[in-house]
Design brief:
By secondary structure, this protein is α+β, with helices and mostly antiparallel strands. The protein folds into two domains: about 80 residues, Glutaredoxin (3-Layer(aba) Sandwich), CATH 3.40.30; about 110 residues, Up-down Bundle (Glutathione S-transferase Yfyf (Class Pi), Chain A, domain 2). The chain has nine helices and four strands, in the order βαβαββααααααα. Helix 1 runs antiparallel to helix 7, helix 4 runs antiparallel to helix 6 and helix 4 runs parallel beside helix 7. The longest helix is centred in the middle third of the chain and has 27 residues. It starts with 5 loop residues before the first strand and ends with a helix. The structure holds glutathione.
């Protein structure tokens, strides 16, 4: 019997969620293994052997090979299961998706991450000393990025062009995490952003 690939995951964690949505889009069955972040299971020696960064997600292949980094995992799944295409059909579209995706990760997700690390939920865990000024600055940059997305989404239906791609998956998951756990829900007047969010998150695969 062939073993399924395992995905190390934790409910509510945004990065593994990106892989779950990609797997659902491609109809790939994975074995989900919960890594209890509350118990710091992602920092155990055993887990560090799977991913020296001590972060989830990790995809473990049938032969025990481990792949960390959400996008490395998603690209691996796309190479195995090319349809539906989420990373680009030709040289130009691939570059456009990569550009938009890097901007979302480096300019939006990283700011949300800084607000999270310096915010009240992480403070309660007592792991790091929050820096209020850092949080304020990332809150502002996150809100500015939302306004930019709203403007871009006035010109096209999806973030990298006319169709749904990996960029929309990453961005919608970032917005959901920021809204639910970081106190950074986009303002209701950002109508293009909210219409896009509904288009993306109402997909059956997204809910799965
Ligand atoms: N760049 C990594 C980020 C992974 C990441 O930060 N995962 C979070 C959960 S969503 C985590 O494991 N955090 C624990 C930590 O940073 O110690 C990826 O895309 O997979």
């Amino acid at each position: 019997m062939t073993r399924k690939m395992k995905l190390y995951d934790f409910p509510g964690a945004p990065n593994p969620r990106r892989v779950r949505v990609v797997a659902a889009e491609k109809n790939i069955e994975l074995d989900y293994v919960t890594v209890d972040m509350g118990k710091r299971e992602h920092k155990t020696q055993e887990f560090i052997q799977k991913n020296p960064s001590g972060k989830i997600p990790v995809l473990e292949l049938e032969d025990g090979t481990c792949i960390g980094e959400s996008i490395a995992i998603c690209r691996y799944l796309e190479a195995l299961y090319p349809r539906p295409n989420l990373f680009g059909e030709d040289a130009l579209e691939t570059a456009q998706i990569e550009m938009a995706h890097r901007q979302i990760e480096l300019e939006l997700m990283s700011q949300i991450g800084t607000s999270w690390v310096n915010g009240p939920v992480v403070a309660k865990m007592g792991l790091v000393e929050p820096i209020e000024a850092a949080k304020q600055r990332s809150d502002d940059l996150t809100r500015a990025y939302y306004r930019r997305m709203n403007m871009e989404l006035g010109r096209r239906d999806y973030l990298a062009g006319a169709r749904y791609t990996m960029v929309d998956i990453t961005a919608a998951i970032a917005v959901d995490f920021a809204s639910a756990l970081v106190g950074l829900k986009p303002d209701s007047e950002l109508g293009n952003l909210w219409a896009w969010h509904e288009r993306v998150t109402s997909r059956a695969e997204f809910v799965a």
